[in-house]
Automatic annotation (TrEMBL):
<dbReference type="InterPro" id="IPR029057">
    <property type="entry name" value="PRTase-like"/>
</dbReference>
<dbReference type="GO" id="GO:0004044">
    <property type="term" value="F:amidophosphoribosyltransferase activity"/>
</dbReference>
<feature type="binding site">
    <location>
        <position position="354"/>
    </location>
    <ligand>
        <name>Mg(2+)</name>
    </ligand>
</feature>
<dbReference type="Pfam" id="PF13537">
    <property type="entry name" value="GATase_7"/>
</dbReference>
<dbReference type="InterPro" id="IPR029055">
    <property type="entry name" value="Ntn_hydrolases_N"/>
</dbReference>
<dbReference type="InterPro" id="IPR005854">
    <property type="entry name" value="PurF"/>
</dbReference>
<keyword id="KW-0808">Transferase</keyword>
<keyword id="KW-0479">Metal-binding</keyword>
<dbReference type="Pfam" id="PF00156">
    <property type="entry name" value="Pribosyltran"/>
</dbReference>
<feature type="binding site">
    <location>
        <position position="442"/>
    </location>
    <ligand>
        <name>[4Fe-4S] cluster</name>
    </ligand>
</feature>
<comment type="similarity">
    <text>In the C-terminal section; belongs to the purine/pyrimidine phosphoribosyltransferase family.</text>
</comment>
<keyword id="KW-0328">Glycosyltransferase</keyword>
<keyword id="KW-0315">Glutamine amidotransferase</keyword>
<dbReference type="InterPro" id="IPR000836">
    <property type="entry name" value="PRTase_dom"/>
</dbReference>
<keyword id="KW-0411">Iron-sulfur</keyword>
<feature type="binding site">
    <location>
        <position position="445"/>
    </location>
    <ligand>
        <name>[4Fe-4S] cluster</name>
    </ligand>
</feature>
<comment type="pathway">
    <text>Purine metabolism; IMP biosynthesis via de novo pathway; N(1)-(5-phospho-D-ribosyl)glycinamide from 5-phospho-alpha-D-ribose 1-diphosphate: step 1/2.</text>
</comment>
């Protein structure tokens, strides 16, 4: 079974030092992208040190560890893997020693040619310690480095053999290198704070550390930071096409991030407005399922002229990984995660918006929570279209047999979740939610059509 990686990465070069601490804050702002494990690797006077473990950023790091790491360059990673236990050894950044020195690699995304790469490398004598794509990438770079004059050239050659999603931060003793795959599947942006150069999966992490957004790393681009100098290698940009994951806007990213010029909040709000136009219904209140359904609920309420209410309270102390794989624990999890606000929904006709329906478990539970709290009608709207296919590029979408929309019609799903009506954002409307985006999209999980063969 593949390991689905939903991750966040953050890296900084800062001549002032204290880099591990900045990465720590940056990772805190990216915690929504992964809660299973996290880590930071830092370079101080060309020496690499690192710390990584299973757990949330606030659990894994303490002031002592951060002081020990310190340095003028650092990269960090938050990871969310959904298969295979706790897997401490799969925590990132991945660090390695080889004849040319040390490397640290932080990776967000999934490759689709992992098997071939692994076999090829193993026949050349490689021994892998983890089951992650990221180790293959690190190995590929280390191999190329033996032939190439510089680490950036090695990165440029190594990534030519990779197919799939990779937003990468690579750190050598002297250089910080940011890379995006030529399809631009996963976001990666660049910012500045004084003399410091920073890279982050999302712009919300730049804000968190007081940095100014500068630009996106472009699909296929390799940005190299050495000392205070920033250079760009665009050799792999020529073949680049832009296919950013559209689900980043719907679910994955934080609403205060701007991705490829498009505010995530505004995209969600627009999705809500489009839903209101497509599936109007008479009701008393519009509520969103926290957190990723809230912005769309606001948009729906605005368009429909129906009051927006806070109908569900989310327990803030539960990470997304709390949704454990077993069906029974998943059902229990919803009750612990969400509490209905009786005064908001009692005796009301409620429109409830969530970002998506995957297996249908959450929606069924929420509909029943709302009815228990007195809602007389519950109309559900999903701000994503039905999932009909898996994602091979880093979002955890289960196999087809677990996707409710693969097995049932909309009317059947409505009945299964117990709602009075149900509407999904259409594919056509999906492509209207991000008019400011300067990129193209991958919508493979909603269409089964992918930008590269899988
Ligand atoms: P389900 O109960 O399987 O229908 O899951 C629906 C819920 O899962 C929604 O509330 C979504 O916010 C959430 N969700 C959607 N995509 C993902 C994902 N890739 N990882 C974790 N949760 C997700």
């Amino acid at each position: 079974m593949p390991i689905h990686e939903e991750c966040g990465i953050f890296g900084i070069y800062d001549p002032q030092g204290n880099c591990a601490r900045t990465v720590y804050y940056g990772l805190y702002a990216l915690q929504h992208r992964g809660q299973e494990s996290c880590g930071i690797a830092a370079i101080n006077n060309r020496e690499l040190s690192f710390h990584k473990d299973v757990g949330l950023v606030g659990e894994v790091f303490d002031p002592e560890t951060l002081n020990r790491l310190n340095g003028t360059m650092a990269v960090g990673h938050v990871r969310y893997a959904t298969t295979g236990g706790t897997q401490r050894e799969n925590a990132q950044p991945l660090t390695l020693n080889y004849v040319k020195g040390t490397l640290a690699v932080a990776h967000n995304g999934n490759l689709v040619n992992t098997k071939q790469l692994r076999t090829t490398f193993e026949y050349r004598g490689a021994i892998f310690q983890t089951t992650t794509d990221s180790e293959l990438i690190a190995y590929a770079i280390a191999q190329e480095r033996l032939r190439c004059d510089s680490v950036e050239e090695a990165v440029c050659q190594a990534v030519k053999g990779l197919r799939g999603a990779y937003s990468l931060l690579v750190m050598s003793p002297q250089k910080l290198i940011a890379v995006r795959d030529p399809w631009g599947f996963r976001p990666l942006c660049m910012g500045r704070r004084g003399d410091a150069v920073i890279f982050a999966s999302e712009s919300c992490a730049l804000n968190a550390v007081g940095a100014q957004f500068e630009r996106e790393v472009e699909p296929g681009e390799i940005v190299v930071v050495e000392g205070g100098t920033v250079t760009s290698i665009r050799e792999n940009c020529e073949s680049a096409t832009s296919h950013m994951c559209i689900f980043e806007y719907i679910y994955f990213a934080r609403p205060d991030s701007v991705i490829c010029g498009q505010s995530v909040h505004e995209a969600r709000r627009r999705a809500g407005r489009l839903l209101a136009k497509a599936y109007p219904v008479e009701a008393d209140v519009v509520i969103g399922v926290p957190d990723s359904g809230l912005d769309a609920a606001m948009g729906y309420a605005e368009e429909a002229g129906i009051p927006y209410g806070i109908g569900l309270i989310k327990n803030r102390y539960i990470g997304r990984t709390f949704i454990t794989p077993g069906q029974q624990s998943r059902e229990q999890a919803v009750r612990i995660k969400l509490g209905p606000l009786k005064s908001c929904v009692d005796g009301k006709r409620v429109i409830m918006i969530d970002d998506s329906i995957v297996r249908g478990t959450t929606s069924r539970q929420i509909v029943s929570l709302l009815r228990e709290a007195g809602a007389c009608e519950v109309h559900m709207r999903s701000s994503a279209p039905p999932f009909i296919a898996p994602c091979f590029f880093g979002t955890d979408i289960p196999d087809k047999e677990n996707l409710i929309a693969c097995r049932y019609s909309v009317e059947e799903i409505r009945e299964l979740i117990g709602a009075d009506s149900l509407g999904f954002l259409s594919l056509e409307d999906l492509h209207k939610i991000a008019p400011d985006a300067t990129c193209g999209f991958c919508d493979g999980c909603f269409t089964g059509r992918y930008p590269i063969s899988v």
